[in-house]
From TrEMBL:
Matching SMART domains: Cyt-b5 (SM01117)
Region (Disordered): 1-20
Segments forming domain Cytochrome b5 heme-binding: 24-96
InterPro entries: Cyt_B5-like_heme/steroid-bd (IPR001199), Cyt_B5-like_heme/steroid_sf (IPR036400)
Organism: Hymenobacter actinosclerus
Name of the protein described by the UniProt record: Predicted heme/steroid binding protein
A Pfam short name: Cyt-b5
Length: 96
């Protein structure tokens, strides 16, 4: 979707536009895996989503997918659902 704007702005955890969300490194994302801290975050297509409230991610994993990492390649390759599955979760940052 290069050069095209999305039909909507993703929801964010603090109400700021996505472009103003903080940037996190992969190392910082890795700490939010549901094991080391209470936060459960996943990266997808350059954005970081907070999935902490999802009962499906409570243990830091959902089927064969683990929180605290960029799941773009995994989900685009073999997920049984579409990318809009993250639409219900707030964007809390951008992946560096």
């Amino acid at each position: 979707m290069t050069g095209q704007k999305a039909d909507f702005e993703p929801i964010t955890g603090d109400g700021r536009p996505v472009a103003e969300q903080p940037v996190y490194t992969r190392g910082q994302l890795a700490l939010r895996n549901g094991q080391d801290r209470d936060e459960i975050w996943v990266g997808f297509r350059g954005l970081i989503y907070d999935v902490s409230r999802s009962r499906l991610w409570k243990r830091g994993n959902h089927y064969e997918h683990w929180a605290g990492q960029d799941l773009t390649r995994e989900l685009e390759k073999d997920a049984p659902h579409t990318a809009n599955v993250f639409d219900r979760f707030p964007v809390i940052g951008r992946l560096a």
